[in-house]
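Q: What would this chain look like folded?
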Amino acid sequence: MIEKMKIESNDGFLHLEDLPHNCIFNKVVTGCGGTTVVLQNAEDYVIAVPTTELIINKTDITMAGISKQSYKGIRPFGLFGRFDDVVKRELQDYLNTPGIKKIMCTYDKVPKLMEYIQPSNYRLLIDEYHCLLKAYSYRQKAINGVLDNYRRFKSFCFMSATPILPSFKPNCLADVKEIQADWGDSIEKLTVELQQTNKPYALVANIINAYRRDGFITSEEGIRSHEAFFFINSVTDIVAILKHCNLSNDEVRIVCACNEENEKKLNFQGYTISNSRSPNKMFNFITSKSFEGADYHSKTGLCFVVSTQSNPHTQASIDTDIPQIAGRIRTKDNPFRNFMVHIFNTNYKKLNLDMTYEQMEAKTNAALEKAQKTVEFFNSATDKDVKDNLRDNLMQNLNKWYMSYDRIKDQFLLNDILPKLELYNYLVNKRIYKDGISVSKSYENNGIETSVEDYLNVEDSISTQKISFKEAFFHYARIMSEDPNSPALSLLEEQQPLVRPAYHNLGVERVRNLRYIKKSVEAALSCLDDDKTKEQKLAQLIVRLIPTATTITVSNALDKLSQAYSEIGISRQPKSKDLHQWFDCSPPYTKRIDGKVKKVVDIYRSKFIFEPKHKTV
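A: My prediction, written as C-alpha cells:
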C-alpha cells in the first residue's frame, strides 16, 4: 500500500522542513529540490549519492572537503574519491567544529564514514535510490554497504523521482513503507519525440552539422535551439562521433567519469573531461555520470537521448533514465524544458530470443529458489568435508549462484538483487527495444506523451569498432616521435598490445616490410626473443625507459636504470657512470629547472645496436 503525501507548491519545489522518515519516498518530479530540503534544514544528515558528479554539482567542490557553497549558512562536507590521511583530517576537523553537520558522500563511503560518526545521531538520505538496482552489476560492494547499514541511522529515506519498480525492489526493503508525493495538477507533462533510424550516430552527426552550419536548429514551432545536450552512455561512442564530425575541444563539453580510462580515450583525440558546473558549449555530451541529480542551465538547450542496439549500455530505460534526463535542464524559461528527442534503432532483425520475458522470469526464479536451498544446506551443514567441497565449488562463481559469502561467519547469503537486475536489463535491452512499437508502448505505460517521426534512413555511417593493428602502429610511431611520454601511448597499447613490442623491438622499417600483418610481426618477435641475451633485453629496456636526444635529471635517469635492473633481476644500485655504458651522453652538469638547481645529463644516442627507430610513419 503506497501512502500519498499532499504537496503544497506553486513553483514546482518541495517546501518541507524535512523529508519523510524511514520510507521509500517517490518525489515524482525531478529537480524539485528534495536534496536541498535536507541540506538546509536543522538536522544532522548524511546524504549518500551514486556519483561524485552529484556532489560536485550540489557543493561546488572538485575534491573532498568543505563545500564552497552554503545552504542557509550551512556548508556541507563532500566525501568522495580517495579517503587518504588528508581527507580524514579534514573530516575530523569538520566533525569537531560546532554546528549542524551535512556530509554528502558517494554510496561506497557510507561504511567508512560510520567509523567517524555515531550513526544514530544522523539521519540518512539515500538519494537517487533507483541507482541501487541499475549500478549493482559493477558496484555490488558499495551498494551492499548502504543496504547493510541504513537501519543503524537515526532515520533513513530512500528518495527518487523514478523509484525501482515493485517487481525489481530488493527483498531487504520489502517491509519499508512507500510514500508518493501528490502534486495535484501542478506536474508539468513531458513530451518525447521518437526518431527511429537505421544509424543513430550518423543521425546525430547530421544534427551536429545543422547546428554548425546555421548556429542553431529550429523546431516545428519555429523556436531556435542554440545548444545541444546529447545523452549517450559510452565515452568510446562519443569519441567516434566527435572524430567523425571533426569537432574541436573548444566546441564540446564532455561530462563523464574522471578516471584514467576515460582520460586516455579523450586525451588521445585532443579532448578533455568537464563537469556539470563548467560552461555550456554548443555541443554538450553527457554520460550516465550525470543522468541523475545534476543541474544544467540553458535558455535554448535541447536534450537528445541516443540509444543504439550495438551497445546495450546506451539503451536508456524509459521508466528511469528518460524522466531523469528530461529533468536535467532547470532553466524555467527554456521552451524545450519539458521536451526531448529520443534517437534510437531496434534489435528486431538481429533479435533471436529463445524465450519470452515471462519464461526468463520463471527460469530466474527457479535458479533463485535453488540458490536459497543451497545456502540453507551449507549454513546448517555439520560435516566439515562436505562444507569444504561445497564452499570451493560455490566460491568459483558466486554471481552465477546468486550468492555472497561472509568469511567471518563462514556463511553464504542469498543475493536477490543480481537476478532482479538481470531481469530488468533483459526487459530494457531485449523486450522494449525490440521494435518501434515496443518503445512507444513503453512510453505510454509510463505516462509519457510521444510524437513519432517518420523512419529516418541515413546513408552515412560512423565506426565505433576497435582500431586495427596497422592504424594503431601508425599512431604509436607518430606519437613516439613527438611525445614519448604521452598517455595516448598506453591507450593504443591497451587496444593493440602488439604495437609496443613491435615498435621497440622490430622498429618501423621492419614492421613496414612485414606489411603490418600481425602474424608475421608475432613470428618476427618470437625469433628475436629466442636470440636475446639477458644484456640485450636489459639494453632494450633501458633505451625504452630513457629517451634519446633529450636532457634528463641524473636522479630521474638513475631511477629508470634501477627500474630496468629490477625487471631483469639485477640487484645492484645504478650509478651515474652507468649511463655511459648504455648511451653517448654528456658529463653531469647543473641546470635550473622550475626555479631549482638540479644535476642533469644530455642523452645523445644509444650505444646499443637494437636502439628503437623513432621514425614517423
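The CA atoms of residues 75 and 187 lie 31 Å apart.
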